[in-house]
């Protein structure tokens, strides 16, 4: 349980309410975050892997809406195999050959071949499914696993007990390091708690405290990840990261070369922005001033402004300290998007999915027919035959270093953004009641 006065942002058995009016914006914002944090061109690995995760989870929801169970981990593995093959992987003869799916057929910008680095491609090219108990690459801990796993935090109706299992199993598909698996799961919990914080107006510090609390229950041997989360949850300890020489930050948290380091750096920068807004608010002695430009006041506290403002300022803090890790910047934007939203996620009339656009606005069953009904409730992987192998034959982006007005016209026609918005609409049509 949380301490008195702290919102219950991570509940063991209860999760996000998909009927909330703010849920669609949260989904759009989180799905757009890797695009907002990186280069706009097709082939962005973080964007593509995140989209594959969303497509896999949408497949699970389609089966659930049709009254069938599915194995989320198997669906995710097959989705990632499609990405690897599209990027040139030569799978061994005994590996499954998943046929093209909706993403491959109807989302050309998100499924286009592009550069890739890290352990995900290497692990997937083996054609083997990595598991927690049987890893493909036991020491793999590269940071691209973070953006890939983050969409799990948007799954509604389930609490952290199920989310931990889903996130750990998904991360283990490619990453065998317990530290990387725990870091990816911690980001999922942070995204989940940050979305819930919208309704209670809880601070990011409270979100992180909840993440650290629940992450301590993960049984994977990941002392480094848990230690850094505990450090960031302590106000005095995290303040010390920003004093003294620039090397103080990287000396304590690292440079972002691993999933654990990238997670810690991104969260540290976000918390520093929020802490600065609170300090300026208190120093002003005038709640009407709202702390500093771009901040807002709620219940006697100052928040640091929009998600775009927070992300821009947090990324600038990292750059000032010599941190160039793209993964750390992606953590910044993903969490800011979950908590406060992004300007690019506001959907205008011209952004609305059109009839015939992959039927994105309509729930679908596996055969493409309409499927009414309640939002699916997803628990731990069931081991069902659905989705199993037997059934398959830089920060200069919109809303980060530029204003939404300066980039609005370009955003409206960016094919990656357009496809991500369609994918987000498909998610909400499947997961909302």
TrEMBL record:
<dbReference type="Pfam" id="PF03747">
    <property type="entry name" value="ADP_ribosyl_GH"/>
</dbReference>
<dbReference type="GO" id="GO:0016798">
    <property type="term" value="F:hydrolase activity, acting on glycosyl bonds"/>
</dbReference>
<feature type="region of interest" description="Disordered">
    <location>
        <begin position="285"/>
        <end position="306"/>
    </location>
</feature>
<keyword id="KW-0378">Hydrolase</keyword>
<keyword id="KW-0326">Glycosidase</keyword>
<feature type="region of interest" description="Disordered">
    <location>
        <begin position="1"/>
        <end position="22"/>
    </location>
</feature>
<feature type="region of interest" description="Disordered">
    <location>
        <begin position="349"/>
        <end position="415"/>
    </location>
</feature>
<feature type="compositionally biased region" description="Polar residues">
    <location>
        <begin position="385"/>
        <end position="395"/>
    </location>
</feature>
<protein>
    <submittedName>
        <fullName>ADP-ribosylglycohydrolase family protein</fullName>
        <ecNumber>3.2.2.-</ecNumber>
    </submittedName>
</protein>
<dbReference type="InterPro" id="IPR036705">
    <property type="entry name" value="Ribosyl_crysJ1_sf"/>
</dbReference>
<dbReference type="InterPro" id="IPR005502">
    <property type="entry name" value="Ribosyl_crysJ1"/>
</dbReference>
């Amino acid at each position: 349980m949380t301490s008195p006065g702290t919102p219950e942002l991570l509940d063991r058995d209860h999760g996000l309410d998909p009927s909330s009016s703010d849920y669609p914006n949260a989904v759009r914002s989180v799905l757009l975050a890797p695009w907002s944090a990186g280069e706009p061109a097709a082939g962005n690995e973080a964007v593509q892997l995140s989209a594959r995760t969303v497509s896999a989870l949408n497949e699970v929801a389609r089966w659930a809406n049709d009254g069938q169970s599915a194995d989320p981990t198997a669906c995710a593995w097959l989705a990632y195999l499609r990405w690897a093959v599209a990027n040139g992987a030569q799978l061994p003869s005994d590996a499954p050959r998943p046929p093209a799916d909706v993403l491959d057929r109807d989302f050309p910008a998100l499924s286009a071949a592009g550069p890739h680095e890290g352990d995900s491609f290497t692990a997937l090219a083996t054609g083997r499914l990595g598991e927690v108990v049987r890893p493909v690459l036991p020491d793999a801990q590269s940071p691209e696993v973070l953006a890939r796993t983050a969409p799990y935090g948007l799954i509604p109706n389930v609490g952290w007990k199920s989310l931990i299992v889903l996130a750990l199993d998904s991360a283990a598909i490619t990453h065998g390091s317990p530290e990387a698996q725990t870091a990816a799961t911690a980001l999922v919990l942070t995204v989940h708690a940050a979305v819930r914080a919208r309704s209670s107006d809880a601070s990011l510090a409270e979100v992180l405290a909840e993440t650290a609390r629940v992450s301590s229950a993960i049984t994977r041997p990941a002392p480094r990840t848990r230690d850094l989360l505990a450090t960031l949850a302590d106000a005095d300890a995290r303040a010390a990261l920003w004093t003294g020489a620039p090397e103080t930050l990287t000396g304590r948290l690292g440079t972002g070369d691993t999933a654990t380091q990238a997670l810690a750096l991104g969260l540290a920068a976000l918390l520093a922005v929020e802490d600065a807004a609170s300090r300026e608010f208190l120093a002003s002695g005038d709640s009407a001033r709202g702390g500093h430009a771009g901040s807002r006041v709620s219940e006697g506290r100052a928040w640091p402004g929009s998600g775009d403002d927070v992300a821009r300022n947090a990324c600038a803090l990292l750059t000032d300290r010599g941190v160039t890790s793209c993964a750390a910047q992606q953590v910044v934007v993903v969490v800011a998007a979950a908590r406060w939203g992004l300007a690019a996620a506001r959907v205008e009339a011209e952004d609305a999915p059109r009839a015939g656009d992959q039927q994105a606005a309509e729930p679908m069953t596996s055969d493409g027919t309409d499927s009414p009904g309640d939002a699916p409730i997803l628990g731990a992987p069931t081991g069902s035959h659905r989705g199993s192998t037997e059934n398959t034959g830089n920060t200069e982006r919109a809303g980060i270093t530029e204003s939404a007005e300066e980039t609005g016209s370009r955003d409206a026609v960016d094919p990656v953004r357009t496809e991500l918005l369609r994918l987000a609409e498909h998610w909400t049509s499947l997961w909302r009641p």
